[in-house]
Amino acid sequence: MSQDKATILVVDDDIDILEQTCTILQGAGYKTIAADGEAEAKEILNNQRPDLAILDLMMEHMDSGFILSHLIKKMDPSIPVIIISAVTSQTGLHFDISGQGERSWIKADAFMAKGNRPEQLLGEVERLLG
Amino acid sequence: MLTIEVNNKEINAHQGETIFSALKRAGIRVPTLCHMEGLTPSGACRICSVEVDGFHNLIPSCSYPVSAGMKIKTHSPRAIAARKTIIELLLANHPDDCLYCERNDNCELSRLAVEYGIRERRFKGQRVHKDLDVSSPSLVRDPEKCILCGKCVRMCEEIQGVAAIDFIGRGSHSRIATAFDRGLNLSSCINCGQCIMVCPTGALREQSHIKRVIDALNDPDKFVIVQHAPSISVTIAEEFDADPGKDAVGAMTTALRRLGFDRVFDTSFSADLTIMEEASELVHRIQNGGVLPMMTSCSPGWVKYVEQFHPSLLANISSCKSPQMMLGALIKSFYAETQGIDPQKIYSVAIMPCTAKKFEADRPEMSRNGIPDIDAVLTTRELARLIKQYGVDLKNLEPDGADNPFGTRSSAGKLFGGSGGVMEAALRTAHYMITGKEMNDLKVSPLRGLDGIKETKISINGLDVGVAVVSGLGNAGKLMEQIKAGRNDLHFIEVMTCPGGCIAGGGQPIKTNPDRIKARLKTLYKLDSQETLRSSHQNPDIKRLYSEYLGKPLSHKSHELLHTHYTERDILL
What we know:
The complex is a heterodimer. Chain A has one domain: Rossmann fold (3-Layer(aba) Sandwich). In chain A, 43% of the residues lie in helices and 18% in strands. Chain A is built from six helices and five strands; from the N terminus they run E-H-E-H-E-H-E-H-H-E-H. Chain A has a five-stranded parallel beta sheet with strand order 2-1-3-4-5, sandwiched between helices. In chain A, strand 1 (7-11), helix 1 and strand 2 (31-35) form a beta-alpha-beta unit. In chain A, helix 2 (38-47) packs parallel to helix 3 (64-75). Chain B is built from 18 helices and 19 strands. Chain B has helices at 19-25, 77-92, 108-115, 151-159, 194-198, 210-217, 249-259, 267-287, 300-309, 323-339, 356-362, 380-389, 411-414, 421-435, 473-484, 514-530, 540-550, 556-562, and strands at 2-6, 9-13, 49-52, 59-60, 71-73, 139-141, 165-168, 175-178, 204-206, 223-228, 263-266, 294-295, 346-352, 367-368, 371-372, 376-379, 453-460, 463-471, 492-496. In chain B, helix 8 (267-287) packs across helix 10 and helix 8 crosses helix 14 (421-435). Chain B is globular, with a radius of gyration of 25 Å. The chains are: A alpha/beta, B alpha/beta.
């Protein structure tokens, strides 16, 4: 998929991060759909199918990102999902998807800590969009 | 020389030295959590305080100079009580998660608490939640465990010349942070991990890849390959209580097989390969008016340092990938092709002495077609934990050798583990490439040892080749300023990020100290003096790799797999 046509759903309840992420993606030629939480993302997903989704984890609920990723994968398993979260920083709990056990319930293709450099985010997006 | 009285006994002291230094020489141990040999005293922890006649208050011995006739009591009831109180105050708001702490078997704060008999919480301080910094690909910072000794700050600034972290805030709000408190990943941190090596508590640790390696080992669809860096075999045994400098390469190889790795390769092989490419590049630059001095590119902390702080010198850096990444690229190309294995099914693990290698493996240039050349990097410490977790007794294993085709190495490749080793190996091969003859004496004595800056001239075919070997980026920074100011008598510079080289890397055992580093280096030299295959260009497996696959050094295939490029790095904060 050529990157100037890819549409990316970005969900984060921190408006600054939401805007930053969208700006970085737009700068690289992607179209973005922004949602400031789980509820708004669900509404968007009723009508639109993004080519990739970038989700915060802890929003209205502690597991909003997990819920959204399940929803997206149920809708279309081919849509890549990246979860970007500060959960480890704030709680000390580590999540990753390197093991089959985790992958059976975390329906994401990448799990990243918040505080990424733009090239790291874009690298993951490019990798997952092929 | 002057005389002071310590605990009713006269000892000699040097004019201008600190009380702490005189005591240490006299064999009197005063505890400290903040002192760093050779660096500016900070007097931060006050645990080294002693009683001095004529002074109302206790005096921090690490930051107070001796004077003639001074009468000192190092372990008087008052001094001991004060030390105990300081430790209790440090513990007052320290997390109580020692059972889960990375440093639970080697925490200096915990050791002192035991030494001073602290078995109850006399002071209960307010615990303030501080977020972990897990943003870096190499390091994790846990500010709640920080005791503000400032050793990491001084290491980063005074030894490494990076200054990615410093104190912010005042009084009880003081803490150590990156610029604008935005996390190590966005800072100028070069990922060397030397801060971990000086941290007395669990406030700093590596970003662990143990779990992902275990997951790969348990995945029946993965073909898991491991490589081990030249310095690992001379440090890993220390984690199993062996004498410093013991070479455990055979037992370690057996242990890696017991853990379930399908193939075990020796990174010293690709160090030989690096030398073939790097020496060829040096000869090409010298003979064709290329950019000089050429500088080594094996140390990823150094490379990031140049990208950030000296981008005008990027053309001086060799285009060669590091041995880790050269072998990583060959495993998923040459090896996968010849063995008929899908590169996507290969999981490539590197055991490295270095936390910056985790960052290097993550670099976008180090992958092809979306497949990373290296999937996980374990430090020496992580490998030791993994071996223990799998119940493998390293001390009682029959030694075994690495697998072909990347198992044979020269002792030149092994020398990569210490400061000066890359240079010595490169000179042996460059001399052969230019003259067709071996050097008369393969040992280049002026480049050996642990000095931070070593220089010499080597005559090759009438050309005096000026070479310099630097370890510790503070030293490298000084040399870079000389180069920028027009110094032009050097042709080749080796830089290793960590003082002493990889044997003292940020991923090595926490118990690393100058004596242990010396013992490790001595072992590398001993191996070099005892072996017959001492030059990279004589390695038969290297010759075979070129004849069967790569063609010749600097060939198109070599450039595609073994070389890379670096660009100016924007330090966001």
